[in-house]
Amino acid sequence: MAKTNPGRFFEDYSIGQTIQHAVPRTVGAGERALYHALYPARHAIYSSDAFAQACGLDAAPLDDLAAFHVVFGKTVPDVSLNAVANLGYAEGRWLKPVWPGDTLRSVSEVIGLKQNSNGRTGVVYVRTTGFNEKDEAVLTYVRWVMVRKRDADAPAPEAVVPELAKTVAVEDLVIPEGLTFDGYDYDLAGEPHRWGDYEVGEQIDHVDGVTVEEAEHMMATRLWQNTAKVHFDTSARPDGSRLIYGGHVISMARALSFNGLANAQMIVGLNAGAHANPCLSGDTIRAWTEVLDKAETSVPGVGALRLRLVATKGGAPFELRGEDGKYLPEVLLDLDYWALCPI
Amino acid sequence: MAKTNPGRFFEDYSIGQTIQHAVPRTVGAGERALYHALYPARHAIYSSDAFAQACGLDAAPLDDLAAFHVVFGKTVPDVSLNAVANLGYAEGRWLKPVWPGDTLRSVSEVIGLKQNSNGRTGVVYVRTTGFNEKDEAVLTYVRWVMVRKRDADAPAPEAVVPELAKTVAVEDLVIPEGLTFDGYDYDLAGEPHRWGDYEVGEQIDHVDGVTVEEAEHMMATRLWQNTAKVHFDTSARPDGSRLIYGGHVISMARALSFNGLANAQMIVGLNAGAHANPCLSGDTIRAWTEVLDKAETSVPGVGALRLRLVATKGGAPFELRGEDGKYLPEVLLDLDYWALCPI
Amino acid sequence: MAKTNPGRFFEDYSIGQTIQHAVPRTVGAGERALYHALYPARHAIYSSDAFAQACGLDAAPLDDLAAFHVVFGKTVPDVSLNAVANLGYAEGRWLKPVWPGDTLRSVSEVIGLKQNSNGRTGVVYVRTTGFNEKDEAVLTYVRWVMVRKRDADAPAPEAVVPELAKTVAVEDLVIPEGLTFDGYDYDLAGEPHRWGDYEVGEQIDHVDGVTVEEAEHMMATRLWQNTAKVHFDTSARPDGSRLIYGGHVISMARALSFNGLANAQMIVGLNAGAHANPCLSGDTIRAWTEVLDKAETSVPGVGALRLRLVATKGGAPFELRGEDGKYLPEVLLDLDYWALCPI
């Protein structure tokens, strides 16, 4: 009996299947410090216990994207080891902060399957939920990936394509229990701009850039226990390059967006996301944001901003697609998320 | 009086000498997180407090190899600063888990000395023991190294070569207090293979590979406060390369062995080990395992697997030595250890 | 309204101005571990809770330079984003240890302004103080930087150049509450040399070297939330190189100085400092020390050593300036500090 995990192929998924992903993980002060070493993260609510307490929380939670990466990383051996492409995200919601000492595990349900016309690959849709050690859901999102078939002659399953919300509705955003911006200190947060200062359609160039290195992205990707070979092994791709985990680009771009969005404190919804082009060591990542929408939430003083966050490895800010409608070659990421901001 | 440490030379050792190694170290959540960032470590008992508690422990201990590296690192300034080669390990036993907050220190006793026939070097055997802040021994092992003489004309000491056990006897393995695999969750652990599923002689190719970088191995080696110049200083070796600490290869290979040995949870014995060839930045480390032996332990449900873990930087799996009996040039590590596995 | 921070220009400062720097930061076990991974730090009082407790402290504090970097990092967006050069330090005093769990913030007061004769730049002097979450000052120092003018035609302010002490007087050094070296364990500390063993004028070559890598210095600089573009972005300087944060060189040199100064345990005063030449990835950092002064302190058994710590990227030890009085091109750092040492 072969004991190593070859990953699942398209035929191995069926609608309704539930996958308990392996290797629970306790996170804490070490993951928090590493997150700050790997990304220029400065949002105060994740940096300072005192600031978080002034916002009604018990302490600084783990960065919302670190929580995402831990939950996501667990799914890789079961969902994307044989993936050809990571196609999209939808209906992502952060349900509870992750505190130092929490132990996270992930469960996925297969909610869609569609074989491609070439007969060699298919698209798998999973809804993944992360749980803490009290079995409370902390995060849920849908992801779909293109996966190889083991056997091109295997019959196609009945196509099921889930209907997914274009965006998470504001009323479905979960505001962390106790959160208040009533005593918010804009000096300590780093910028004076409130929710009311942002206009739909406004674009912000985040100005700063970071040239990325092999050692950094591998440390980050391992930290989240993401095992995809292409990130680590120069023999896994024909050109000998290591593909940088898309989540590394997400975190880098979000951290860079502090400069102009310092008060977009907490990510609570993930509407959509595309990894437009591969990122490699030596690329200099920059970011810009477009305000897509804004809304008040159920908590007085807490507003929500819907933001398009674009990461690039060159080119001018605010350019996304070419005349053919395709992403420009220098665009790395197009992410659509909801963040909470003092009104 | 010169104040810097020139390291000890062969003449500076005598049989029975006890060396109190410097710089005790408190380990905790930060070292745990860094271990996960530096190695693709996924054994659940070290990753999750909740999983470790379900196995009867108070919390996830520090990875057994991290404990080894901390204890080992302290010995370098006293034992191997002038070492020409790290020749072997024997009689290694983990005696107590290392918990976050523990402070470790190391003590070595010189148990063997043998001058080489060239008169310029000699072999020093030390038995090193790591202690926690309660002066409880947590780890012990024998290591022997080839050390330069300060003065080739100094007389040779009487040769003393200790008799060392070929393997640690199963009855000498210490099972951590309280450890039980009765409620073991194979889904969360990541693989279904039990102790009974492994056969003596079975070989496992761990499939994955990691291409290593300078920044990573230096961070790891510093984390263990290992001060050997060859790991850090490009002017220390004629070709300008930095030699990667052998322990980095051990940890990388052990982490890679998760894929096929996810349930070989805790290392409790180190029977032997050889760093067959040097590892340099840019090498892609892979690993394979051969099951050398298996035995039940004093604790019902807890089995022991004796495993040969081989790390390579190329070549085919399961090839170890050439026709001349020497290690193949692509073999980095040949390690013989005992791990605990649910029966 | 542009929302990104362009940094302040010379005209934006006025005497007496107080700047509340943004993004408080909680530090802990993660930062401690990362400090050990990034630098070969071995001073026992920062490495071991048990050792620190034997010296009368509650636990091992965060390394004094890590505390400095966190406090310093917060000032960068407000003080040195448009700086041409970091000119000097003075009157630095560590006032309280920083403990794991402390939250640090920084406040600066502008105490000097002097436009340069070229009309395009000016020198800004700030006194920066770091506070913990109890609003206790933990560190204070003066720094002066050369900053660009936004508009060369803007009128020059009245020149104010503060009178700064050449060195911090011994009676102004703050000995951490409870500190005692009465039960000091020289074996565990790593060297036998006491305060009485050092002579004014004595020079120590710290022997070891570390070749630095891009990934390391960027991780360190991000960890301190220092946002200066030149450290991260290869497009920020004409030659595509990333300038290494001067504080990275300070920490590397101080850690290397363990070899010969293992008992110069705690830094309590910063008298002066110059970043003599830029440090780039690939440079091999070495260090040497000259004992400039020594004094007893108010606490029996606790002596102070005034030390010149020089970091180089080549050349011979103990050479600092050329015949023209300028720093030799291989000198990176000339730092003048007070450390506490058992008498």
Automatic annotation (TrEMBL), chains A, B, C:
InterPro entries: HotDog_dom_sf (IPR029069), MC_hydratase (IPR048274), MCH/BMMD (IPR052342), Thiol_ester_hydratase_Rv0216 (IPR016790). CDD domains: FkbR2. One of its GO terms (molecular function) is lyase activity. It comes from the Bacteria. This is MaoC family dehydratase. It comes from Aliishimia ponticola.
